[in-house]
Amino acid sequence: MSGFKGLRLYNTLTRAKEDFVPIDTENVRMYVCGPTVYDFAHIGNARPVIVFDVLYRLLRHLYGADHVTYVRNITDVDDKINARALRDFGGEIGAGALSLNEAIRRVTEKTADQFHKDVAALGCLPPTVEPRATEFVQPRTDGKTDMIGLIQSLIKRGHAYESNGEVLFDTASMPDYGQLSKRPLDEQQAGARIAVDAHKKNPQDFVLWKLSSPEEPGWESPWGRGRPGWHIECSAMSSAYLGEVFDIHGGGLDLIFPHHENEIAQSRCAHGTHAMANVWMHNGFLQVEGQKMSKSLGNFYSIHELLEKDTFGGRKWPGEVLRLAMLMTHYREPIDFSVRKLEEAENTLRKWKRAADHADGREAAVPAAVLEALSDDLATYTAFQALTQLTNEAGEDGAAAAAVKAALAFLGFETSVAEVDANAVADAIARRLAVIAAKDWAEADRIRDELLAQGVQLKDGKDPATGERITTWEVKR
After folding, report:
1. pLDDT (mean) for 314-337
2. pTM of the predicted model as reported, rounded to 2 decimal places
3. Which listed site, 54, 222, 278, 432, has its alpha carbon 20 to 30 Å from 345?
4. Which residues, 6+ apart, have CB-to-CB distance to 214 below 8 Å?
5. Region of residue 123 (phi > 0: left; psi between -120 and 50: alpha; otherwise: beta)
6. H/E stretch holding 249
7. 23 near 246, Cβ under 8 Å?
8. Which CA distances in Å does 368 have to 299, 384, 390, 412?
């Protein structure tokens, strides 16, 4: 690539953009925290999945598809999952028709299956490996890292202790604890509940293992029947597939503290290493129409709802439109997820696809300008500017059209204009005529513009025989 200077990524650990130098170019390794499968994934959960899918695609391009290992976990043991199982199946559990473990399995299988369908609709590639937390609690027959083994190592090395039925990580045993979040120790202590956590040596110590009651799910361990703390799960699963030190760890900004901070503490102290991952990447927060997303505000949307129900802006949204809307803002910046942004993404995507239609069978490499932009800390907006420039040239230049098509495929988008559903167009026209009769001109314009974004151009006229308003349509490629 002309002028290509290599991949540069912003490292949360150093608060700087750095040249990316993999530990092993033959096996570039990345871990991203996946969903806790107690409910359908919401639109905020979609952002890291999409962002790190783009990075995964870029790494595969730069180092070869067979030389990148991407691990994204499934958390299927959690108190929220237990609560959801009791809520949904409490009657059957109480009647003895179903055990709590069976109810938990029903909840997690349903939600994990839906998550897979949702992220596939968003154009995301499956990770290389997708481990489930429940498979890594106890020692494994294949010798891969497990949670109980990690906790035992932490106790042996003097970094963990038993107290009041729990095993806790001793934060004072790690001199540079807090390195990722840069939170001063007194700030960590300020919010600690001293009265509640009196069994801790230090207020900021966190749980590695806790005992389970007979009614709660649990595993046998040296400390009694219990279950793991949240943070130890990712330390075990990342080590199992990526080793004690790997290249990139990603997730949302909200995970920096305490989750990622505590992952680092556990992993480094258990293995005696200088690092857990060399590069830490975090995507920014998401708002909906300028407000924090919450169920109380009525602006909490699952990916499934946006794809399948008329809940946001009064219509369903294609997965690739949701994908583009997420990527139009740089991954480290906060994003305002809005109907207007989705409409802009849909219009842009339609223009790109029309341009790609002029490739006429030609093939091309991914444009250098797109790759160079993405290689600068995933500068998607700059990449999209380059793609739009190529789109403007594609009307008369088949090579440019082929380049647009290659870029779309590389970025995870379909490369052809979707076939128009004539019945859906007829229904939209009928709705528009009805709102015109009611003199709701704004809604009539909205329906017209929505159809135009799909490549359908309307033409209003009058029936020569009756004088009634009629609307015809044609597809504009």
Report:
1. 97
2. 0.86
3. 432
4. none
5. left
6. strand 246-252
7. yes
8. 39, 12, 12, 17
